[in-house]
């Protein structure tokens, strides 16, 4: 750099103010750069569309945010999730909106050479004006935008305006520039990059919003700034980690600079420093780092999750121009796909350990992402970890998560299968679109690649598979289809993997979920991942899962209703007459959904649940049971199957859905069940080949001595058969350790299986690690007794214990406290006859308040008097 620059730089440094708040904590705190968050003082107004004449004035706005939330805060619209309000708010997407901010630029800020306006997210199509000059036209919600604006600014008051046209009109404008539009029938809305679920999904409402949905800031910098810091993990093992600290520096002109990288080597501070010659523009500097005996990052259940922190600094003429930190966990990841006797394997091998992936698919946490809090993320992700999950699939119909989301996954050891944000709909094949998605993928992989939790980048959700069944695609002329397929391959097996290969070559890429990477059609047993929707969409019995021997199941699901309190949050009493009222149907987005739940209930159980509340409860038990059958089957099938990721973990609004945790964060029965069926060591009894076989599935990396106890009991507690044995549980394996021929079971219960069950219990070191019940007749034919449940609540404010017991078998014991908030240590559990269990209860309420509201029921209670009659009628 020229000499004169140094003196100017020093002068600027002396006057530069350092602003740094909130989101910019990763930025410099003692450098020539200053960062000002533009997060207050925003206003918005409606330019056109329904009600624009009445809604003329400017109203206060929240940034980050969106127009729906701003209208709500200004009392212009009712609560979008309440009753059937969704339908009444569809006008919002047809209007155009404008946001504005007046902000000061001080003389100190203006003295910087560069002033950049940085948007971390704009949803989606908009024009940005600085002091009335158009500086940016954006149409991709999934990108971040940096605009040098010094030439447009002055000291004192400046204005920033962002104009959002109606999204579909904006998409139309782009779409008509593609000559292939008419031939392919690709939906016009795909021409702008916006989260698919905003347009409605089979669990989500349609709220097509607009807004500055992620932070916006003004960055003032001098000669150089660190535009990226990445820790490339070239080779990681227990002995040594060979890393590259890649420091990307943007320089305004050519010249000399000093780069400094600091980190810790097993508690010892280490630093690397180098004089470099920067060229004007982007410079990438590599600093090889070797860490001996690194503390490796492991998926939950396999070890701890230590993180290493790195700091890079760029100085010019002794003045620190910029500083940046990143954290990462060191691990090796391989997606092993070897030929074997079943086809080709699909298993994640982390630090050399073949890990059976257990988890659920994650959808957006809210229809309005900017209001998701750290607590929401923590609660849902900790719930995943607490249910013994080790992987979540971040599904492609939403948006790329915030850094915070992945940081929590890093901390909890939750591996993330990360889809690129393409869900189900066919994408345009135009050249501008291809450029757009390359830029998007580049932004996102660069932003997220230091998160050790991300173990896979995957092209899209179900786009590949839709090519062979979606009518709008199959009905096209062969030559058009050929071109579309070619474009698909260019995008999902050309552009996206190339971005991953360039930016994070150590992490595997997968073209689509589901896919067999084109060696077979997707959803084949032999290769790739599968979405198994035979249960639910094709309405087959749960046990059909057991006929399916996939290599990895990345979706399978069953719906249920949320619990009563959540239903009450969006209904009035008349809506709760039954599950088919207009409001209940407005909160069911899978058209046939409520009928499917109803029909499965009627098939599975002896009668209809006795009332609305029982319907909600039984639907949850049914869902949990469905997913238990699939999950245990695929765990028993390891190593042929190496992953069971059920659909879905969370909700974006209160709705009947496949979620295991509802929008309010309340665990459904499935989440409690998941904790049991994903237990690190699972006992899984199963009737097959004329025998009850007692499998133990172990995710432990070492063999373990255990005690297996199995009993055949009747519902009143009589033990008809019992066997106990010491076993040596094989690590990372599934095996049957005991077997009872069915003839032996029927002899013991005199051929009447309607009143007996088998309970298997596994103890390690005298402690129960897993217990599981099976029945020898379908639930419908069981003579479940009415269980006179006894419950006793004790303890002091904050922490209580609830003792529940039953003299006879009580299935799916459900504890609730009416309107009161309480966190339960367990729920929807079985009590075997004579058993008494203690459940922890955390609540801010008093003992008396809780006692007043406490309700404990079991499955038999949901069917009231009709059950006995129905059972005998069926006999
Ligand atoms: C799969 C998912 C979602 C959908 C779910 C339930 O296809 O990828 O698109 O919500 O099934 O139908």
Can you offer a commentary on this structure?
The protein is an alpha+beta fold and 875 residues long. The protein has 20 helices and 46 strands. It has a 6-stranded antiparallel beta sheet with strand order 3-2-4-9-6-7. A 6-stranded parallel beta sheet has the order 29-28-27-26-25-32. Helix 16 (612-636) runs parallel beside helix 17 (669-677). The longest helix has 26 residues, at 478-503. Residues 1-30 and 866-875 have low confidence and may be disordered.
Strand content: 25-35%
Q: Supply the number of helical segments.
A: 20
- Order of strands, main sheet, comes to 3-2-4-9-6-7
Structural class designation: alpha+beta
Give the overall form.
globular
* Cα distance spanning the termini: 92 Å
Q: Whole-number average pLDDT? A: 94
Q: Largest sheet, described in full?
A: 6 strands, antiparallel
């Amino acid at each position: 750099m020229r000499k004169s620059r140094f003196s100017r730089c020093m002068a600027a440094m002396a006057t530069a103010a350092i602003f740094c708040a909130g989101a910019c904590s990763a930025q410099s705190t003692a450098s020539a750069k200053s960062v000002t968050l533009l997060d207050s003082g925003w206003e918005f107004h409606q330019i056109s569309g329904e009600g624009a004449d009445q809604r003329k004035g400017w109203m206060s706005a929240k940034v980050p945010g969106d127009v729906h939330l701003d209208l709500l805060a200004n009392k212009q619209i009712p609560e979008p999730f309440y009753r059937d309000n969704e339908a009444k708010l569809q006008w919002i997407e047809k209007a155009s909106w404008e946001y504005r901010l007046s902000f000061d630029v001080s003389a100190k800020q203006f003295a910087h050479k560069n002033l950049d306006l940085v948007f971390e997210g704009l949803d989606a199509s908009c024009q940005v004006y600085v002091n009335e000059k158009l500086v940016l036209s954006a149409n991709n919600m999934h990108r971040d935008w940096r605009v040098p604006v010094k030439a447009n600014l002055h000291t004192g008051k400046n204005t920033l305006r962002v104009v959002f046209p109606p999204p579909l009109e904006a998409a139309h404008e782009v779409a008509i520039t593609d000559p292939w539009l008419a031939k392919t029938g690709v939906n016009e809305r795909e021409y702008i990059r916006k989260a698919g679920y905003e347009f409605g999904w089979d669990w989500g409402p349609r709220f097509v919003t607009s807004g500055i949905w992620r932070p916006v800031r003004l960055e003032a910098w001098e000669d150089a700034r660190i535009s990226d810091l990445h820790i490339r993990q070239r080779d990681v093992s227990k002995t040594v980690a060979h890393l590259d600290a890649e420091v990307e520096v943007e320089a305004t002109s050519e010249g000399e600079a000093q780069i400094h990288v600091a980190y810790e080597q097993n508690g010892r501070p280490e630093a690397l420093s180098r004089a470099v010659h920067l060229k004007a523009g982007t410079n990438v500097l590599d600093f090889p780092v070797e860490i001996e005996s690194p503390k490796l990052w492991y998926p939950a259940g396999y070890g701890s999750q230590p993180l290493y922190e790195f700091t890079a600094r760029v100085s010019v003429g002794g003045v620190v121009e910029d500083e940046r930190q990143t954290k990462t966990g060191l691990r090796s990841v391989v997606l092993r796909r070897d030929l074997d006797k079943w086809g080709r394997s699909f298993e994640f091998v982390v630090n050399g350990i073949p890990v059976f992936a257990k988890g659920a698919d994650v959808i957006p946490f809210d229809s309005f992402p900017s209001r998701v809090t750290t607590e929401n993320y923590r609660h849902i992700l900790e719930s995943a970890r607490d249910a013994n999950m080790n992987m979540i699939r971040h599904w492609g119909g939403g948006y790329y998560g915030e850094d915070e989301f992945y940081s929590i996954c890093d901390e909890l050891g939750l591996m993330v299968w990360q889809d690129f944000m393409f869900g189900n709909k066919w994408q345009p094949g135009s050249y501008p679109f291809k450029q757009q998605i390359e830029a998007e993928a580049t932004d996102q992989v660069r932003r997220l690649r230091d998160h050790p939790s991300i173990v896979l980048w995957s092209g899209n959700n179900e786009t590949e598979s839709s090519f062979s069944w979606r009518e709008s695609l199959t009905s096209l002329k062969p030559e058009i289809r050929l071109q579309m397929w070619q474009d698909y391959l260019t995008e999902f097996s050309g552009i996206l993997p190339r971005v991953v290969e360039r930016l994070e070559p150590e992490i595997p890429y997968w073209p689509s979920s589901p896919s067999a990477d084109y060696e077979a059609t997707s959803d084949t047993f032999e290769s790739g991942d599968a979405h198994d929707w035979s249960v639910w969409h094709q309405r087959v019995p749960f046990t059909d899962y057991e006929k399916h021997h996939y290599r990895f199941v990345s979706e399978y699901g069953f719906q249920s209703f949320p619990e009563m309190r959540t239903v009450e949050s969006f209904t009035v009493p008349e809506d709760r007459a039954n599950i088919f009222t207009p409001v209940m149907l407005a909160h069911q987005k899978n058209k046939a959904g409520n009928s499917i739940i109803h029909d499965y209930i009627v098939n599975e159980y002896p009668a209809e649940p006795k009332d609305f509340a029982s319907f909600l409860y039984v639907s949850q038990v049914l869902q949990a049971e469905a997913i238990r059958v699939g999950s245990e089957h695929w765990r028993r099938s390891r190593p042929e199957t190496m992953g069971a990721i059920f659909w879905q973990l969370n909700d974006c609004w209160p709705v009947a859905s496949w979620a295991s945790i509802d929008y309010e964060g309340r665990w459904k029965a499935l989440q409690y069940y998941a904790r049991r069926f994903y237990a690190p060591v699972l006992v899984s009894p199963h009737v097959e080949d004329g025998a009850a076989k007692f499998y133990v599935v172990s995710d432990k990396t070492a063999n373990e001595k255990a005690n297996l106890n199995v009993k055949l009991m009747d519902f009143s507690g009589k033990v008809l058969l019992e066997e106990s044995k010491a076993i040596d549980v094989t690590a990372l394996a599934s095996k049957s350790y005991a077997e009872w021929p069915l003839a032996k079971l029927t002899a013991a219960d005199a051929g009447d299986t309607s009143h007996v069950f088998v309970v298997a219990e596994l103890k390690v070191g005298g402690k129960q690690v897993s217990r599981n019940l099976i029945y020898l007749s379908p639930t419908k034919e069981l003579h479940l007794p009415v269980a006179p449940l006894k419950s006793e609540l004790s303890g002091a404010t904050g922490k209580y214990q609830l003792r529940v017991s039953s003299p006879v078998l009580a299935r799916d014991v459900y504890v609730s406290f009416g309107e009161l908030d309480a966190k339960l240590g367990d729920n929807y559990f079985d009590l075997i006859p004579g058993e008494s269990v203690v459940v922890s209860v955390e609540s801010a309420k008093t003992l008396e308040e809780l006692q007043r509201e406490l309700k404990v029921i079991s499955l038999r209670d949901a069917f009231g008097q009709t059950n006995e009659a129905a059972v005998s009628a069926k006999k």
